[in-house]
Amino acid sequence: MTKRIGYRDWRWQALWWHHFFLLWSITDAQTRYSIPEELKQGSVVGNLAKDLGLGLSEIFDRKLRVASEAGKQYFTVDAGKGELVVNDRIDREALCGQSASCVLPLQVVVENPLRSHRIEVEIRDINDNSPRFLTQEINLKIPESVALGKRFPLESAEDPDVGSNSLKTYSLSKNDYFSLKFKETKNGKAVPELVLEKTLDREKNALHHLLLTALDGGNPVTSGTCKITITVLDINDNFPVFNENEYKVSLKENSTKGTFVIKLTAKDADDGLNGEVKYSFGSRTPDFVLSTFEINDMTGDIVLKGLLDYETSKSYLIDITAKDKGVPEMEGDCRVQLDVEDINDNAPDIVLTSKPVPVREDAPSGTVVALISARDLDSGNNGKVNLRLPKGSHFTLKPSFSNNYELVTSAALDRESFSEYNIEITATDSGSPPLSSKKIIPVSITDVNDNPPVFSQPSYNVYLKENGVPGSILYSVSASDLDFGENAKISYSILDSKVQDVSVSSYVYINSDNGSIYSMHSFDYEKLKVFQIQVQAKDQGSPSLGSNTTVHVFILDQNDNAPAVIYPSSAALGSLSHQRMPRSAKAGHLVTKMTAVDADSGHNAWISYKVAEATDASLFTVNLYTGEVRTKRAVSEQDDSSQRLLIEIKDDGEPVQSSTVTVSILLEDGLHEPILDLRQKVTEPSKKTGRITLYLILSLASVSVLSVVTFLILAVKCMRSSRSSGSCCMTQSDYDGYKNPNRNLQIQLNTDGPIKYVEVLGGDMLSQSQSFRSCMSPMSEYSDFTMIKPSSTTDFKEVISVLDASLPDSTWTFESQQVSRE
Q1: Are 66 and 77 in contact (CB under 8 A)?
Q2: Rounded-to-integer distance, Cα 268 and Cα 307, Å
Q3: Could you tell me if residue 44 is left (phi over 0), alpha (psi between -120 and 50 degrees) or otherwise beta?
Q4: Neighbours of 653 (CB within 10 A)
Q5: Number of H helices and number of E strands within the chain?
Q6: What is d(CA 444, CA 455) in angstroms, rounded to the nearest whole number?
Q7: 490-494 and 530-539 beta bridge pairing
């Protein structure tokens, strides 16, 4: 016992000695290390980071890790030092059995970029196992009549170690009757045999006790022992003998239960019971053999009892014993080697060495997505695996080494079309018939900001009533972005532009989150009819993408202006209008004309006149549309000399806006019309008639020449300005706001009664009230042109003062005439 304990201490010292002499080498572009088995956990195998050319910082950044193809994780990486260390107990005999070479293939995976490296760790054998006999005692019965030189096969010892540490020799305890010799088998193993060297004499020595020792070649040498007890028998001196000492057969692994394996025959030269043979498995036959095969003890037929599996056991060694029925019992031995033939009964297996990483949609072709390996437990062609992807896939498989592949991109990706790909990989072996398996690998595509926001409409039209409440919502624009996450978050803004020389941001503002546009103050149609807003939508990607749209805002007119009187001037200024007419006036006599304008537009600017109150309602009437005040009948002597009319002027809006004018008319006797007085003066003889006629001719000639010169000057100005503005009487902006090709203007001269005026009749039924830029007073003594601004911005007091300066009491009046709405 003392020697055994000392030997174990020495063996652990040997393990530590091997630990400090680790070897590594690189062969065929692969890193290879060599270590002894049974190293303690944490023992260093080699500096993996240094051998792979990686810095210590890259161990964390690139997520260095080790994947073992053996299934169990025997090694790990020390992240602080970059060393490959032992993670679990390594038993070479459990991993590789009796194989001369024991190599553990490892796969080292690093990311960013994703790469894999193959390393191999050779596990060297140490002498950690002693030779061992399956049975600790062997009982042999040998007749005394056995001839010298007879050999008796003994149990072979087993040593799991290999090489120099494996079983080397046997020794037999010293005795006079037996010696130890060896018989070489076909598999190269030496089987110990006990050889009779001296004739046995049962009467002298019926029992012999021997000790068989098995020795290995390790340093130090280890051993195992087995006791041999020999009982010397009398008579029955012939043994059953097989035709061959060793038989070799083969069966396919898919053989069914009851399949015939082999028929064994042993012959015994004795007669009677001493020559009758029965067959059985050897006494040391393992349980897995007994559960797989059975033998007929009478015929020697071996049949299949269980199922064969090439991947579990490739061959079986079956020891068979033939015994006779003599006394003492004699037996013979043989061995059957059964080789299992592989069939294609295992489908290929697809293994993900590295989980797939998300891929950017702008990733170039050849980007590594995942690492894949394929394996098949079958052998030969049955174990050769081919991987393929469906046609038209955006990915492909790139072989790396020994059934390892890289899944890489092969075409452009678009997350908006496919945000995730379920890649189906099919693995097929080369067996007959071939077997296949499939595996679906999900690969998610990460978004790139490659889509700008898109508005629901290229432009928007918004119709807004004037006089709205400041802060009210005008409209909500919306845009969408096909991207995802931050790349699809949209913010809205208004691009800076001018509206009537004022920044558009002074008129409106926009909610940057939802695109709602709000007014900052109330709008006045008479000052602003239409304006544009440039809205920009930008996402929050990097770099940010954006698009623009135009919002056209049209201000709708409301009836917020009452008609304003511009003639007579006194009525326009709020005073009483005084008019005179002769008592000799007939029915239809033009007394005066009311002229009013409305700053509104459309129906809101349609003006009508009516007599609200009158001293004598039967004497006067007012034209509903022109505002002409005329007599309804001839004036009589009974009519009061002072007449008062209250004329109401209304527009056509909703609600109706109105104003009133009070006209005081004085009826005078002997008041004649100017034209009649002129005729009377022409007919009256006078001494100054010739001189007055001369003056009139000169005046008419002067006025004619002046008019021609004036029109020529205007024509030249119109020609020059038309090249730049397109109109000789309007600026381009006004022209754009008022041009209408269907509008026909007619100028009508009215000389009826004491008031002379010019009416401009417009043919556009939709615009009933217009103010024009030029006013003429052709009968005025100044013969001038009066320029009036558009009605929406007309200061009526200024117009009246201009008219007063250019028109005498009885002269021409220029106005915009409304057209009947019939």
Answers
A1: yes
A2: 34
A3: beta
A4: 20
A5: 10, 57
A6: 29
A7: antiparallel
Do the Cβ atoms of 601 and 608 come closer than 8 Å? no
Mapping DSSP to helix (H, G, I), strand (E, B) and coil, where does residue 749 land?
Answer: strand
d(CA 481, CA 192) in angstroms, rounded, equals 86
Kind of pairing between the strands at 546-556 and 459-465: parallel
**Are the C-beta atoms of residues 814 and 775 closer than 8 Å to each other?**
yes
Interatomic CA distance for residues 742 and 154, integer angstroms: 130
Cα 61 to Cα 76: distance, rounded to the nearest angstrom: 17
Contact 374, 349 (CB under 8 A): yes
Query: For tokens 């890790």, what's the residue?
Result: 65
Q: Which residue matches tokens 């002072």?
A: 642
Separation of CA 437 from chain center:
30
Length of the chain: 822
Mean pLDDT of 410-414: 88
Q: What is the residue type of 242? A: F
Q: Which two tokens stand for residue 816?
A: 């915009």
Both tokens assigned to 667: 């009826």
DSSP secondary structure string for all residues of 47-113: EHHHHTT--HHHHHHTT-EEEETTSS--EEEETTTTEEEE-S---HHHHHTT-S--EEEEEEEETTT
Q: Which residue has the higher pLDDT, 820 or 295?
A: 295
The rounded Cα 50 to chain-centroid distance in angstroms is 39
Query: pLDDT value at position 736?
Result: 41
pLDDT at position 12 is: 41
> Which pLDDT score, from 0 to 100, does residue 722 have?
57
Residue closest to 555 by CA, chosen among 509, 601, 607, 501: 601
pLDDT band at 698 (very low <50, low <70, confident <90, very high): confident
* 521-535: b (≥16 Cβ within 10 Å) or e: eebbbbebbebebeb
CB atoms inside a 10 Å sphere around CB 219: 11
Q: Which of 572, 646, 571 is nearest to 611 (CA)?
A: 646
- In the structure encoding, which two tokens stand for residue 22, read together? 């680790």
Are 794 and 736 in contact by the 8 Å Cβ rule? The answer is: no
Amino acid 736 reads: D
Of 86, 71, 153, the C-alpha closest to 123 is 86
In the β-sheet with 331-341, what is the strand arrangement from edge to edge? Answer: 246-252, 331-341, 315-324, 277-281
Torsion angles phi and psi, residue 355, rounded to 5: -65, 145
Which residues are paired to 610 by β-bridges? Answer: 648
Instruction: Quote the CA–CA distance of 73 and 454 in Å, as a whole number.
Output: 54
Q: Could you give the C-alpha distances from 453 to 73, 481, 489, 568, in angstroms and in order?
A: 51, 4, 9, 61
What is the dihedral sign for C-alpha 465, 471, 473, 476? Answer: positive
What values do phi and psi take at 703, rounded to 5? -65, -40
* DSSP state for residue 132 in the 8-state scheme: B
- Burial of 135 from C-beta contacts in 10 A (0-12 / 13-18 / 19+): exposed
More confident residue, 617 or 672: 617
First to last CA, the chain: 137
Burial of 592 (C-beta count, 10 Å sphere; 0-12/13-18/19+): buried
Angstrom distance (rounded) from CA 570 to CA 561: 21
Does the predicted TM-score (pTM) go above 0.85?
A: no
Please name the residue ranges forming H helices in 559-657: 569-572
Contact assessment for residue 126 and residue 14, using Cβ atoms and an 8 Å cutoff: yes
Across the range 125-153, mean pLDDT stands at 87
With beta carbons less than 8 A apart as the criterion, state whether 662 and 622 touch.
Answer: no
